[in-house]
Design goal:
Helix 12 packs across helix 13 and helix 13 packs across helix 16. This protein is of the alpha+beta class. It has 20 helices and 19 strands. The strands form four sheets. Strands 12, 13, 14, 15, 16, 17, 18 and 19 form an eight-stranded mixed beta sheet that branches. Strands 9-8-7-10-11 form a five-stranded mixed beta sheet. About 1% of the residues have low confidence. The chain is flat, with a radius of gyration of 35 Å. It has five domains: 87 residues, GIY-YIG endonuclease (3-Layer(aba) Sandwich), CATH 3.40.1440.10; 145 residues, no CATH class; 120 residues, Nucleotidyltransferase, domain 5 (2-Layer Sandwich); 160 residues, UvrC, RNAse H endonuclease domain (Nucleotidyltransferase, domain 5); 52 residues, DNA polymerase, domain 1, CATH 1.10.150.
């Protein structure tokens, strides 16, 4: 009995009860820890058929030498135990997230003319440090904000020994620095700005605004209108900043937003954390690609919040999550243990402000993936929208589109274009001259084109156009085209999905259709833009080829008027010389060198053009 069969037999002997299983290699190293509602059913799946397993699971199973298990009283207890063991052992094949324990500080250099900056660690340099903070993102945002808001110096000019005639830098002219280097700002006035910035950082915008209002009113009472006006302007600047920041704020005071993106073997989770309605932190984690997104989201949530002390009452997700009730209960108990009393809920917004924030988070995840693949983030976002809309198992990295063009059934041609990673891949474009269909039958012509294209796949493995199968086929046509072509494509057994691109009365993309109902794409901005571009491009390419063929046919008709020159010889001459003018200029020897031409035919061509 081989090792896999031996492990399967052992798994089938497990009790059908909830618990945790621990996969180990020959050295006893823990490879994977998982929970199960029924240990027997879950563990035996690993050692049965691997056709539904991902590559990651196959690799893990190939290394398993034995496994242990722990029976628990309920699936919820199994979940808690699983999280605890994963945090303790960090197995290779579980989702591993780097828990960034590095601390960050805000540094205020010694007076006079202090500078505010970010620092990764404290130093014995006489400076004041605020912190520590866990988020470098939040620190950078805060430092940039206060320096800009209070006009503090960020350049490298020495401020302690300034000259009155010193010329300020660009920051002063765009209103982001009070230019202490010019000598126009006294040390006391600059120190007041720094103290306001520190109050803003440590106590928040509302507290600082209240203090400034008190000072403004006090200055007005003693008739110090210049100071009161300066404080009034500072309050207005704070209010304006608050209004401008609402684009990255949420009406929900405290929540986390999690979004997933993957393409071509790269996958990433992006996390936005909102506190007091403002984006306070963001993180991203690269993970193993997965086709089982609900279970991947569940595993990420378990791992991510195992490493966090606090859990928000609301977690926004971009799709379904496995074990939602169990995870909600676990996170609720975790928040209660931290002294906070609320029920943690998973939310899946479809419209409105929250859907926009979720889209922003997903776009950021797509941008991370795109950077790894050296492609544009908006292209990944468009492909992801299309994948979700059409229910595709993978991102459609290669999309092929087809169109037929003719004039009342004559000069019929087909066109194939390719979009790779959301952009035209012109070296893979191909043209087809229809050979088996007579007359005006777009469905039959489309079938001929797809049949020839898919047969060429096995014949030309190195060809840029035919040597790679598409992830998705889009036809320039409606349900009729799809119904005619889909059985043919399915007969090849490649599992390629086929959809039609439906146009409105103005010849613009309106929807996508399979064999059934139409799917509107106008609400999916990125996907709509991509599909519209594909439809316009395939139509342009087909029309251009058709017009070129008609023009050549017209020229060929001129040549067929010559005795001894039929359609076949006319096309051979045009293909060899490239144009009718070049044929006219050729001598008898040059014409005879063309395959299929005799000397008599060459003499007839020369004589015809001499006489005409």
């Amino acid at each position: 009995m081989d090792k896999k069969s031996e492990l399967r037999a052992k798994a089938l002997a497990l009790p059908p009860q909830p618990g945790v299983y621990i996969m180990k290699d020959q050295k006893g190293t823990i490879l994977y820890i998982g929970k199960a509602k029924a240990l027997k059913n879950r563990v035996s799946q690993y050692f049965g058929s691997d056709t539904t397993h991902t590559e990651k699971v196959r690799q893990m199973v190939s290394r398993v030498d034995h496994f242990d298990y722990i029976v628990t009283g309920s699936e919820f207890e199994a979940l808690i135990l699983e999280c605890s063991l994963i945090k303790q052992y960090s197995p290779k094949y579980n989702i591993l997230l780097k828990d960034d324990k590095g601390y960050h500080y805000i540094r205020i250099s010694p007076p006079p003319f202090s500078r505010i900056s970010e620092a990764k660690q404290k130093a014995e340099d006489g400076a004041r440090y605020i912190g520590p903070y866990l988020s470098s993102f939040a620190i950078k945002q805060a430092v940039d904000e206060v320096n800009r808001l209070f006009g503090l110096s960020t350049c490298r000019k020495p401020l302690q020994h300034h000259k009155a005639c010193e010329r300020p830098c660009l920051n002063h002219y765009i209103g982001q620095c009070c230019a202490p280097c010019t000598g126009k700002v006294s040390p006391a006035e600059y120190a007041d700005r720094v103290e306001q910035a520190i109050t803003y950082l440590t106590q928040g915008r509302s507290k600082l605004t209240a203090l400034l209002r008190q000072r403004m009113e006090a200055a007005s009472e003693v008739l110090d209108f210049e100071t009161a006006a300066r404080l009034r302007d500072r309050i207005r600047a704070l209010e304006k900043l608050s209004a401008n920041q609402k684009v990255v704020q949420s009406s929900i005071k405290r929540q986390d937003i999690l979004a997933f993106s993957q393409a071509q073997g790269v996958a990433c989770f992006e996390v936005f954390r909102f506190i007091d309605g403002a984006l306070s932190d963001r993180e991203h984690f690269f993970v193993e690609p997965s086709h089982e997104l609900p279970s991947t989201r569940a595993e990420f949530v378990r791992r991510y919040y195992s490493l966090r002390e606090s859990v928000p009452p609301r977690i926004v997700l971009d799709g379904e999550i496995e074990d939602a009730e169990l995870l909600s209960r676990w996170l609720t108990e975790k928040s209660t243990a931290a002294g906070e009393r609320y029920t943690v809920r998973f939310v899946f917004p479809q419209r409105g402000e929250q859907a926009q924030l979720l889209r922003m988070c997903r776009d950021n995840a797509a941008e991370r993936v795109a950077q790894q693949l050296s492609i544009r983030g908006r292209d990944v976002s468009a492909l992801e929208e299309l994948q979700q809309l059409l229910g595709l198992p993978e991102l459609p990295a290669r999309i092929e589109s087809y169109d037929i063009s003719h004039t009342d059934g004559s000069d019929v041609v087909g066109a194939m274009i390719v979009f790779k990673n959301g952009k035209p891949f012109k070296s893979a474009y191909r043209r087809f001259e229809i050979k088996t269909v007579v007359g005006q039958d777009d469905y039959a012509c489309m079938c001929e084109v797809l049949d020839r294209r898919l047969r060429e796949y096995s014949k030309n493995p190195d060809d840029a156009g035919f040597g790679e199968l598409p992830d998705l086929i889009l036809l320039d046509g409606g349900k009729g085209h799809v119904s005619a072509v889909k059985p043919l494509v399915d007969s090849f057994g490649y599992g390629i999905r086929v959809f039609g691109m439906v146009k409105d009365s103005h010849h613009r993309t309106r929807a996508i259709t399979e064999a059934g109902a139409e799917l509107s794409i106008q609400s999916r901005r990125s996907a709509f833009t991509l599909v519209s571009a594909i439809q316009e491009e395939v139509h342009r390419f087909a029309i251009r080829y058709h017009r070129s063929k008609r023009q050549k046919q017209g020229v060929a008709t001129t040549l067929t008027e010559i005795p001894g020159i039929g359609t076949k010889r006319a096309m051979l001459l045009l293909r060899h010389f490239g144009s009718l003018r070049a044929v006219k200029s050729a001598n008898i020897e040059q014409l005879t060198a063309v395959k299929g031409m005799t000397r008599a035919a060459a003499e007839a061509v020369v004589q015809y053009f001499q006489e005409n």
